[in-house]
Specification:
There is one protein chain. Helices cover 78% and strands 0% of the residues. It is mainly α. Helix 4 crosses helix 9 and helix 8 crosses helix 9. The longest helix is centred in the middle third of the chain and has 33 residues.
Length: 209
């Protein structure tokens, strides 16, 4: 069957389970790169806004920096999460290929990746002020632009929550387990990743100290 050329931007909102199944059976390889990279860019833009980067740099510069830093982070996170899920299912005796798990995980990035369009639009209409936290803007922005910034944050939160829900669905689908088992697998997986990061930080601190 010919690979699909349609990224699951819309289907993941209406029929997330069916969209995951479609991508597993007939997905475009670009999905593995585009969706998590774009969701990583959104997270970088959120970080820039929370840290008031807009007070020190222009919107275009922030977008460009977020594109490469956030894109790399999104791809790194995709492979870390996929790797730990692959490791856990192997421990349990399953043999789902890593590539299949990675494809399913990448689909869960679609909702948050959608928020990238909102951030680009806001950076054009609001400018660099969109990369300043709303509480810092309350006294300086006109009410209409402040409302737009708040709606941007609200839309991003909705996208992030739906991405988390789709992640649970994707893990359940690819491993053929229940939603509860998928949640448990993800909790254990993220705990292992957090422990690994903490151990790496402690080792680096010990070496440098």
């Amino acid at each position: 069957m010919t690979a699909s050329v349609v990224l699951p931007w819309r289907g993941v909102w209406r029929q997330p389970r069916a969209t995951v199944r479609e991508q597993l059976a007939n997905g475009n390889p670009l999905t593995i790169l585009v969706l998590p990279a774009t969701s990583g860019i959104v997270e970088a833009l959120l970080h820039a806004s929370a840290n008031n980067f807009g007070a020190r740099a222009g919107a275009m510069w922030i977008l460009l920096m977020a594109a490469w830093a956030g894109g790399l982070w999104g791809l790194l996170r995709l492979h870390m999460v996929s790797g730990v899920i692959y490791f856990l299912q192997r421990l349990g005796g399953d043999t789902v290929p890593f590539a299949r798990i990675r494809t399913a995980i990448s689909v869960s990035s679609a909702p948050l990746a959608t928020a990238f369009l909102f951030w680009v639009t806001a950076s054009i209409t609001v400018g660099r002020d969109v990369f300043i936290s709303p509480d810092a803007l309350a006294a300086s922005l006109p009410p209409s632009l402040l409302l737009q910034s708040l709606l941007l944050y609200l839309a991003t939160v909705v996208c992030a929550v739906w991405s988390l829900i789709v992640l649970v669905i994707a893990v359940a689908e690819v491993l053929e387990i229940s939603a509860g088992q998928a949640v448990l697998t993800l909790v254990i997986g993220y705990a292992l990743l957090a422990a690994a990061v903490l151990a790496a930080v402690l080792v680096v601190a010990a070496i440098m100290g």
